[in-house]
Amino acid sequence: MCAYALVGAFSLAGHAQQLQSVTGGVYSAGQAARGQQIYQAQCAECHGNAMEGTIGPPLAGESFLSSWSARPLADLVDKIEKTMPFNLPGGLSRQQSTDLAAYMLQAGKFPAGQADLRDAVLAQIVFPTARPSPAPAATMSAGASLPPPEGNLAELMRAILFPNSNIIFNLQLKDPGTQPKKQPAASPFDYVEWGSTIYPGWLAVDQAAVAIAETAPLLLTPGRRCQNGRPVPVDRADWKQYVATLVEVGKVARRASQARNYEAFIDVSEKLNDACANCHKVYRDKGGTEGSGTTRCQ
Ligand code: HEC
Ligand code: HEC
Question: What pTM did the predictor assign?
Answer without folding.
Answer: 0.78
